[in-house]
């Protein structure tokens, strides 16, 4: 039975008799605190529950879905459950966004809202993870939906084929724990930063151009984006001149995914004191203040 990964429901929707039977089943079939995908499927088929509901019950019972076993030495079961209950919006499903979506889904972030107005074109094929020959001409957000369902059916995915702006941003971003900026134009980034500040949501910014990239975690009210682009003269950055290869979005998107993870789990040091600059040609990483 396919999982209803596009729905978002909680364990409270499971009836009490079923809940007790599921808990017994999980206890009987867990091996070394791990519950296999095959046994999760059995629970879904027998009790008519969603993947996210089963995952939540597994972790509430002190076990771990087996697909997360390589997370367990850096992410505890309670933290994995926190990720499952988290909501992240990824604005842009292209070069950066494709990698962010992929990694957050594999990490186990429970709800992703993926937002992009565009369709795939041939020039996307050199660098965008979600771009395939078969996807040419199709919605980037729809491609993200299919990819996430194939990777991790416990993740609720909400695709929106629209551009985020002042007219719809409040509706699109309200309720999110973190927003990821994977936009390819400056005006869009500035609007997104303003919306996140208004909604008091942390924003993880990333941009790329050729061998170079930058990442920052922007807390509400910091105004980092406005300072960063205060002297802009065009809507496109230097990526319009340098282009982008296959590896730069993979590196910067991974750094953004790591920042999202740290925010959701309240761990580690965030890139909120400036901008991390990435120079893959000289293999140099520096953090510079923004004032």
UniProtKB/TrEMBL annotation:
GO biological process: cyclic threonylcarbamoyladenosine biosynthetic process
CDD domains: ThiF_MoeB_HesA_family
Domain of life of the native organism: Bacteria
Pfam families the UniProt entry points to: ThiF (PF00899)
Gene3D superfamilies with a match to the protein in the record: NAD(P)-binding Rossmann-like Domain
Domain THIF-type NAD/FAD binding fold: 68-290
Gene Ontology molecular function, alphabetical: tRNA threonylcarbamoyladenosine dehydratase; ubiquitin-like modifier activating enzyme activity
Name of the protein described by the UniProt record: HesA/MoeB/ThiF family protein
Organism: Pelovirga terrestris
